[in-house]
Specification:
The protein is α/β, with parallel strands linked by helices and 277 residues long. The chain is built from ten helices and seven strands. The chain has one domain: Vaccinia Virus protein VP39 (Rossmann fold, 3-Layer(aba) Sandwich), CATH 3.40.50. The chain has a seven-stranded mixed β-sheet with strand order 3-2-1-4-5-7-6, with helices on both faces. The relative contact order is 0.16. The structure holds S-adenosylmethionine. The site of S-adenosylmethionine has 23 residues, from α1 and α4. S-adenosylmethionine (SAM) binds next to α1 and α4.
Length: 277
């Protein structure tokens, strides 16, 4: 089903979600500790690295990037102007370049960057293989790409909701996309927020790979990428509305579940602290 795994649906989803994203949503599902773990495999080992953050949104992950790389060397790309506009509230990102664009058709010449990072965006891309081929194309030889994204939940109800909402790829899919794009020296790390009771292997991962020194530019799929601005027939418009409403409802269901589990975890921690003191 994956109703929001389409560019127009994702655009409108973030048109509304951006209003409460930084305050109510992101802190539940994507924490500073997780961010540090995924950025560790991106090998941000020089402040001068030309770094591209794809699906940068309001800049939470980019804030982690600029701890390692000088902000003027960092480009934030997102298809949502509403998300990008919110990133101006983060003083550390003032000097970053911001570009409205599509992960599957990056508006940069081959070999433009030393590092590519993307956190929590792949699940909305209609064609992840195409986007990861684009990551490979825009990196220079020796460049590193890191993509962080969700894994399929084990719980049957959560799995059903997840599959209705967007793409939760398996680790094998992530690895296959990186291999097909031509990345080598692949590394994977699993992450989860503190409240998550299951193993990290059923929450999210980051995969990183290196573009070889002799690597050829990888060709993406021959067919056209889905377009955000494609004209809609009345039937397409009806399909869009149905997908948007049902997909957003499935996604929204994760917020109270996450909030309840996070509150339970905080309470348990407080009890342990008060028992000790
Ligand atoms: C969950 S947010 C992640 C934002 C940010 N990376 C962070 O760490 O908070 C996903 C972002 O991906 C963007 N996005 C979705 N599909 C995209 C596409 N095809 N191209 C570029 N950005 C996309 C959304 O607009 C949204 O801002």
């Amino acid at each position: 089903m994956r109703l929001i795994q389409h560019k127009r649906e994702a655009y409108w989803f973030y048109r509304f979600l951006s209003l409460g994203y930084d305050r109510w949503v992101n802190p539940l599902f994507w924490t500073e500790r997780m961010r540090a773990s995924v950025l560790a495999v991106a090998r941000l080992d020089d402040r001068g690295l030309r770094t591209l953050d794809v699906g940068a949104g309001t800049g939470f992950t980019t804030e982690g990037v600029v701890e390692h790389v000088d902000a003027p060397r960092v480009t934030m790309l997102d298809q949502s102007p509403h998300q990008l506009a919110r990133s101006h509230r983060r003083p550390a990102l003032h000097a970053c370049r911001r570009i409205e664009g599509d992960a599957e058709q990056l508006p940069f010449p081959d070999g433009s960057f030393d590092r590519y990072v993307s956190a929590g965006s792949i699940e909305y891309w209609p064609d992840p293989a195409r986007a990861i081929a684009e990551a490979h194309r825009v990196l220079c030889p020796g460049g590193v790409a890191m993509v962080a994204g969700p894994l399929p939940p084990r719980n049957a109800i959560a799995r059903r909701l997840a599959d209705t909402w967007m793409l939760f790829p398996t680790e094998t899919q992530y690895r296959d996309w990186f291999a097909a794009a031509g990345f080598g020296d692949v590394e994977v790390v699993h992450v989860a927020p503190e409240w998550h009771r299951g193993g990290r292997e059923e929450y999210a991962l980051a995969i990183a790979g290196v573009k070889g020194e002799q690597a050829q530019t990888v060709q993406g799929p021959a067919e056209q990428a889905e377009r955000l601005d494609a004209p809609l027939s009345p039937a397409d418009r009806a399909r869009f509305v149905a997908r948007f409403v049902a997909g957003s409802a499935a996604g929204a269901a994760f917020v109270p579940i996450g909030a309840a589990l996070a509150a339970r975890e905080r309470l348990a921690r407080r009890r342990v602290t008060s028992r000790r003191s």
